[in-house]
Design brief:
With about 160 residues, this protein is an all-alpha fold. It has 6 helices and no strands. The chain is elongated and about 95 Å long.
Amino acid sequence: MDWKTLFLSTKGRIGQKDFWIGIAILTGIWWAAHFVPPFGYLIHVLLIFPFVCLHTKRLHDLGKSGFIQLIPDVVGLVCFIVGVMWLGTGLVSAVARGDGVAVAGLLMGALLLVVLVGLWALVSLGFLLWTGLAPGQPGDNRFGPARPRSVLDNPPAAPPPVEV
């Protein structure tokens, strides 16, 4: 396996070492992109696909479909929508009523939004740890051979040329 395949292909399997190295590299790029404001957002968007490729190949090593990585995203979307709706209800109530009870409802809505976003972060972290730390399936599976070459493995050296 090469670096291009590691970051730009969803085919095959990767081991834990390649997964964590890829995650570290992409996370470093993601953080560095914060320091280039006009292009940082574009870089963040462009990094979505390499992250998906890494997770897909790692899930393949576990014998799972790459679509499983949508679970934390769906949980996050549901948490965000419920939190914003609750916060919006509290805001409308606070504006309409203008009393202390309505303001308390607004604060509870804000607190719930923070708790739900925290829940999403925990689910995402748990998924990342499970994906990266779970041992791969032994032997071949439907996604490829059991022990794919690591991106850190040196290619086999070519034999020296034979002089005649």
